[in-house]
Amino acid sequence: MAKQTNYAQPWSQFYGPNLGYVIEMYEQYLDDPDSVDPELKQLFEQWGAPVVEEPVSPADHEAAQTHQTFRLPETPTVFSKLVAAVKLADSIRHYGHLAADTNPIVKEEKKLRRLELDEYDLTEEDLKRIPVAFLCPHAPAHVKNGWDAILHLRKIYTDKIAFEFSQVHNLEERNWLIQQIESGAYYPSLANKERVALLRRLTEVEGFEKFIHRTYVGQKRFSIEGLDAMVPLLDELVRQAIEQEIDAVNIGMAHRGRLNVLAHVLGKPYEMIFAEFQHAESKNFIPSEGAVAITYGWTGDVKYHLGAARRLRNQSAHTMRITLANNPSHLEVVNPVVLGYTRAAQEDRTKPGVPEQKTEASFAILIHGDAAFPGQGIVAETLNLSQLGGYTTGGAIHIIANNMIGFTTESYDSRSTTYASDMAKGFEVPIVHVNADDPEACLAAASLAFAYRQRFKKDFVIDLIGYRRFGHNEMDEPMATNPIMYSIIHQHPTVRELYAQKLVEKGIIAEQEVEEMEQEVAERLKIAYERVPKNEEELDFIMDPPKPVVDRLPEVRTGVAKDVLHRINEELLEFPADFHVFNKLERILKRRSGVFMQNGKIDWAHAETLAFATILQDGVPIRLTGQDSQRGTFAQRHLVLHDVKTGKEYVPLHHISGAKASFVVYNSPLTEAAVLGYEYGYNVYAPETLVLWEAQFGDFANMAQVMFDQFISSGRAKWGQKSGLVMLLPHGYEGQGPEHSSGRVERFLQLAAENNWTVANLSTAAQYFHILRRQAALLQKEEVRPLVLMTPKSLLRHPLAASDADALVHGAFSPVLEQPGLGTDASKVERIMFGTGKLMIDLAEQIGKMEGLDWLHVVRVEELYPFPEEAVQAIIARYPNVKELVWVQEEPKNMGAWTYMEPRLRALAPDGVDVSYIGRRRRASPAEGDPVVHRKEQERIIRCALTKYER
User: Fold this and answer.
1) Does residue 760 sit in helix, strand or coil?
2) Alpha helix (H) ranges present in 386-471?
């Protein structure tokens, strides 16, 4: 095998005739230095005579070069050495994280190759000749030359904090990050008293967990131990936020470490947490001064799902609110909810037009699990919102609580990337990885993240790398599934022990003071524990909802004076003189003119626009989002107009007289779960706002099912979290197949209980107008609840679904509507047919063509839940000779409202009256795929519904 070539010597790259030529030139140089090429002269002056080494074959020479990170030209110059040094410095910046000391329990073999001098044909002497400014322009004063600069860069980029920012394409951002990192400006210089305070905080964190571990043996707590530094990291973010007089900090996190964060960051009293462990009444321990707010539902939730809010004041009397959002065990689903909180906290909605947003008013902290961050798709959905106009919050700070394991699954089985954080690179988010055993480094990471967010209004990720001291929920035995990892963890000292030892060695604190600190914390916990009652007698075992929830909705006047509607209608059709509306669209819109003077008809979208306008005049802000919602999926809405010559946007609702609040409609990204969660969070934080989310088709709400299940339907019962969110789900069978037919009304009815929401399927534009206005009027009342609307598709323009202008003036929302012209002779009616939504218009259309239907009455159930029992019962009572109550629907029998309606109709049916079903048979799929088959089946249902059968 050929001798290894020394690439630090330029002559080693010459062989054969080339080497002979260099030797010849050197002899010429000795005779007359100025007679040779200036670059060769410089090489001869620097390196002396060419060295003739053992011959190297071309193949060996090529192989040696292939294995190099960087290779110089065959005749290196001072310039090429400089290039190599710059390349080395950049490689340290880009790849230093691979060699960093960020894993607290496993000291892995570091990937140093790209950081070695000989990979770049460089020596220490070479680097000493290179000025610092070329390699590290922001170096501190002790860095004197290029060699010092490389040592400095190696130290910074391979220490307890590792940096990844090569994915950040914006040069200003990258240069700022380099300046902060390499100058050390971001790294806090802690005074000794601050270090002692940090140790005290770590003692509180560890002491709290140890006390629970001893006191409540076998109970789940999802301990923070191994990631203890997360609490002081959050403390640092909160400290900097209140220093800059931010109004609100909103935190979202799953259950790992949640109790500790509640106790120490949110200030939830120890007594309350212990009471929850002991199944005792905890509300008596809420601080009376109101600094900590904790809401309760009537059914409650497990203690490590609960949220809280806290108010802090700085020396200037500025008050800041910290909120930890309630969150179920669905880990990451709280992320968009918290961003919704944050956007709501940033916006002023008190003036017409688009709300004024101040991103410096609040920011979000999202704490993720290391298995969940790459594993849960909603994380990517949420990251995608970060720079979108309708959803940006000026940057969230993400903390990955990285214990290097997911339940019992090792990292190599849970992700296909090097780091848990790698997905964020696709969104150009800078990332720092920090060793959780170095609490001062964790504070530095927080400081850098906050400064970046404040300056650039963008997201930042802190990958906090620690471990999990016990099993997933303290009842597991991790040695059974992860023996190697836990054999190391069991021998590993805690971060408090490590930091205390460091401070003792530096003479900052005495060993005795460390012990006294531990005893003080333990004593505080013991006193708190002894204050908590030890019995379960005071617990509410009935769990009834409060009276405003139980009661029916209050009567709300929703009609609007005719002259007001007329004025609004005309203003909505007035466009600026220099604005050019698409001519076809302008003709369509102008048809609305004069409708109130001519007793014309108002279709669905027209009624919606008028409802929005009147709600704005009432001082209620409106936020509507969804896929294609500005135009409307079915080209029906057109709330945002586009100039055909310039593309400029014009929103008529921004220009109506008398508006007292903001209005926005955003086209959402192609996602359901994250956007619905965001709108829910926005509404919870801004309860005075009418927030509407629209699915492109109702079926697509499937993708957001966890939001319906865990937040919207049950949030008030579990957490006392009120919401008036409106969900618009296009629903109706029109032959478009299984994924464009059903909004899955059955699922919302299955979740319906305790007046948790309203589920409606409307058949007229006036009904839509009135229910929107009713919802807006209820927003800040105790009776408020979400509204689930099955909205139409073909009915958007159907003449029988359009309403007279007077219906908006004098009418009100009615939970049931009766078919006009039927049931007039009560003695002849033998069948009362109930149904809801589009099919009722199909039936009405057919009824209008028929005679001899005096045996039939048809009732539309517009509000399915709460079930309008009294109204339905009163209708049935009017018909003494009725023989059957029929429920008719277009959905399959196992879907739609039948399973919900059947027991209710049976309970109201008089003795001897049958209750039966007309519709599709039970199916696995919600609709037929072929439009011809659909039409035939739809015709059969209508025919059966309108055919009298002799008994």
Assistant:
1) strand
2) 439-456
DSSP assignment letter at 5: P
Q: How far is CA 430 from CA 437, 448, 550, 556, in A?
A: 22, 10, 49, 51
Question: How many CB atoms lie under 10 A from the CB of residue 490?
Answer: 10
Cβ neighbours of residue 555 closer than 8 Å, sequence gap 6 or more:
none
**678: part of which helix (H) or strand (E)?**
helix 673-685
Q: Which alpha helices (H) appear in 8-77, and where do they start and end?
A: 17-31, 38-47, 58-66
Outline where DSSP puts E strands in 370-420: 396-402, 405-406, 409-410
- The Cβ of residue 429 has, within 10 Å, a number of other Cβ atoms equal to 23
Which phi and psi (to 5°) does residue 262 adopt?
Answer: -60, -45
Which residues, other chains included, contact 211 with Cβ-Cβ below 8 Å and sequence gap of 6+? 522, 525, 526, 529
Q: Is the pLDDT of residue 411 over 50?
A: yes
For residue range 598-622, what is the model confidence (pLDDT) as tens digits? 888 999 999 999 999 999 999 999 9
Copy the structure tokens of residue 71: 């290779």
Which residues does residue 728 pair with via DSSP β-bridges, in sequence order?
694, 789
pTM score, two decimals?
0.90
Block residue for tokens 């399959």: 892
Burial of 288 (0-12, 13-18, 19+ CB in 10 A): exposed
Q: Looking up tokens 């203690």, which residue turns up?
A: 303
CA angle in degrees (0–180, nearest 5) for 471-475-479 = 45
Q: Is the pLDDT of residue 397 over 90?
A: yes
> CB of 413 within 8 A of CB of 375?
no
Measured CA to CA in angstroms, residue 170 lies from 97, 165, 177 at distances of: 21, 10, 11
Least Cα distance to 330 among 781, 867, 707, 886 occurs for 707
